[in-house]
User: What shape does this take?
Amino acid sequence: MKKDLTYLVTISLILVACGVFVTSGCSQPVKTLDPGVKGPQLIVNPGTVRLGVAKMKDTKLVFSGSGFEPSDSVFIKLLNVPVDEKKVDLSIASADVRKDGTFDATVGLLTKVSDFLRAKIGSNEKMENIMIVTQPPMPAGTYTGQAVSMLSDKKADCILNVKEPSCIDRLKDWLGVKMGKIVRK
Assistant: This one.
């Protein structure tokens, strides 16, 4: 037991050191809507996500748009995502358009887990939420995100880059498995 605790503390210190190194100056710039664009536009923050289980779970993924009709609603979909040897469009978020024609659509945890990671949320013996991974995540690649108006024919597109887990992400996931927070079947 003491050996396991020492091992976990050592790994945790390495993770903290790596986290400081990775986040010092390497973060993505936050994208903002261009006020000069008069028609519909869409951006996503962050523009790149990684498919590590712990990383994806903790990533706040927000699609923002402008140029839509006030009091409209939009839904966000990812176009041409490979699923079971065919390509499908995945609906991943929705939002109400504000009076100024803008919106922010946050991708929820369940969508990130089921559509991006292709995993499930379950409970362990302590009734804590855990991630149950039974298949590979969606393929890494460049995907088109699209905002579609519910009341008009307005649409806007942006690019979302989906990358494989980094070494740090894999280490976090390994620790998650050892701590019982991630189950691989």
Observations:
- The two ends are 25 Å apart (CA to CA).
- DSSP finds four helices and eleven strands in the chain.
